[in-house]
Amino acid sequence: MIDQSFTSSFSVEKTPNEAFDAITNVRGWWSEEIDGGTAELGDEFTYRYEDEHRCTMRLTEVVPGRKVSWLVLENYFDQTEDTTEWAGTTVAFEISEKDGRTEVRFTHQGLVPEYACFDACSSAWGFFVNGSLRSLITTGEGQPNRRRVPAEEAARGR
Questions:
Q1: Which of 20, 81, 90, 155 to pair with 118, CA 20 to 30 A apart?
Q2: Which InterPro entries match (predicted)?
Q3: What range does the domain containing 46 cover?
Q4: Is the pLDDT score of 158 beyond 70?
């Protein structure tokens, strides 16, 4: 049976440790709306995107310069019939050296074409992994979702 989980990879002229450090800086490339730890084995964090998507991840594998894996503990989508589609899936980043470059291979194990969110989620992961994460590794600047400031908080800050 062929695994149809979403996978993407890229290579950069940075060290595996630099790639690892960027991957574990989830607020720097995915979203500033992250609560919790994102770098140590057993850390749990919650991701939010407006009222559309939220999920809780646990770091299940952390090998500096080599690999990071997250288990999706809980998930909510507001636009799919099964709002928990990601629950129980695994997000993995594998880091290796090839021909003097560092390759980052991203796999969302269990995110498959049968999921209602597959097209939108694959497109989003493509942007955040191949665009934002790659940029964070190579330039030090990613393009994460920005933290939303509640209207009453914004009004006080004027």
A1: 20
A2: ASHA1/2-like_C, START-like_dom_sf
A3: 6-156
A4: no
